[in-house]
Specification:
There is one protein chain. With about 250 residues, this protein is of the alpha+beta class. Helices cover about 50% and strands about 10% of the residues. The chain is built from twelve helices and four strands, in the order ααβααβαααβαβαααα. The chain has a four-stranded antiparallel sheet, sandwiched between helices. Helix 2 packs across helix 7. It is globular and about 60 Å long. Bound molecules: flavin mononucleotide (FMN). Flavin mononucleotide binds next to strand 3. The site of flavin mononucleotide has 13 residues, from strand 3.
Amino acid sequence: MNETIKTILNHRSIRQFEDKPLTDEQIKSIVQSAQSASTSSFIQAYSIIGIKDKEKKKKLAELAGNQEYVEKNGHFFVFCADLYRHSLIGEQEQKDVLPSLESTEKFMVSLIDAALAAQNAAMAAESMGLGICYIGGIRNHLEEVKTLLKTPERVIPLFGLAVGWPAKITEQKPRLPFQHIYHEDEYQQDSEIYLSQLKEYDELISSYYEHRTSGKRKDRWTEQMAKMLERKNRMYMKEFIQNNKLDLR
Ligand SMILES: Cc1cc2nc3c(=O)[nH]c(=O)nc-3n(C[C@H](O)[C@H](O)[C@H](O)COP(=O)(O)O)c2cc1C
């Protein structure tokens, strides 16, 4: 197994970091790695906002549901879907780009681009021995995040990425069975097979939690998912996106 795959397979989210900032050189390598990701039609429809200001980090940690590691880390990046620069390009080139820029398709492209860039950034950081944790919690209060980061129209802050020197390394979380995720030639739709694979996974996850919490937690994955999906949260998202002139048609 090569070193890249070893790094990828060794991933686990880190939620406690040493009080040691990343160097500017490290930040640059991480951002350049993000920028090297493939991008749909060369559109580069994302931006990355690095947060150094301590007060801003503190505020973001609060907005993300009081997640301490948003404030205490080596650096905090916010990944945004971004079609703002393309609206300026339309004006500069005197082309009517808005019907396309405001389509669901282009919004999807910007989400995919941002996610690919972020995962390259995460891998670059982990390859340097740093730990990472994605922070979707910033979407709890996007209006406030937008004001704090001064993002213009057509820019949606999607998630944060806390990066730093790990202070506590947790156990890895086992993933779904290979056969459950990987289909060959066509989608395997047999629900009996699907459910039996999930049962097998439930047992694995249940014993994982039992071991990790010394018996305090034993939840099955399907149980966890059903509970999480039963809750309606961030239901304001469509309105927020459309108010920011994306996904309108
Ligand atoms: C887009 C995204 C948003 C996430 N948001 C949070 C978050 O707000 N807080 C947190 O502690 N973990 C967050 N995570 C981390 C996931 O909980 C974690 O990746 C998942 O439980 C699997 O665990 P692992 O990364 O340790 O393998 C997020 C992950 C992703 C991809």
